[in-house]
Design goal:
Elements lengths: L25 H11 L11 E5 L5 H8 L4 E5 L3 H13 L6 E4 L3 H10 L6 E4 L6 H12 L8 E7 L7 E2 L2 E9 L2 E8 L3
């Protein structure tokens, strides 16, 4: 696993052995960021990200590598928190991030209460926790956090996390191998 592009291009990232963490593959991460920067390589400059179920931190670190100003890494697992910290440290990233060790609903409430205005929200819960997708997307739809953000959910291709959650509506679904990315945007009500 490595950083795909930007300031930290080709630098390696660590992962944990076992099935506790399933990092977003290099290929799928490259596809995600190609979509987000299509026609504009500087599209992520100064952006604010929330990386839910951050695992290794690979998606948020890729965002920082490509010019994001701030990434909020949200992860419940203490082992994953330590891994994210080690990956950031190995790249000598000292600022522009915040690590939040909380459950998703609590983190959404915290970030919402603090007035965080994200441009991008990425969520990648373990594929087998299908109800977690629904509860996370519903909580985002009920918060102000996602009002101006693009929300991207990585999931198994065979699973559909849903098309609409209140004002949060899927605008695109991209499949690659056994994985898929669903892109959501808040619609005006």
């Amino acid at each position: 696993m490595r950083v795909i592009a930007g300031k930290f291009r080709s630098r390696p990232l660590r992962s944990l052995s076992g099935v506790d963490i399933r990092p977003t593959s290099d290929r799928l991460r490259e596809t995600l960021f190609n979509v987000l920067t299509a026609g504009n390589p500087q599209a992520l400059e100064g952006s604010v990200w929330v990386d839910f179920f951050a695992g290794t931190g690979a998606v948020g670190i890729e965002a920082l590598s490509r010019g994001a100003a701030m990434v909020h890494f949200v992860e419940h697992s203490a082992r994953a928190i330590e891994l994210i910290s080690r990956n950031l440290e190995s790249l000598d990233i000292k600022q522009g991030f915040r690590i939040i060790q909380q459950g998703t609903r609590e983190a959404i409430a915290l970030l919402d209460a603090q007035g965080v205005r994200a441009n991008m929200i990425f969520l990648d819960p373990p594929y087998q926790l299908e109800t977690t997708y629904l509860s996370t997307l519903q909580a985002l739809a009920e918060s102000r956090l996602a009002a101006h953000a693009q929300v991207i959910a990585e999931h198994a291709k065979r699973f559909d996390p849903g098309r609409k959650f209140k004002a949060l509506e899927r605008t695109r679904k991209l499949e690659q191998g056994d994985a898929a990315l669903s892109f959501y945007q808040a619609t005006l009500t």
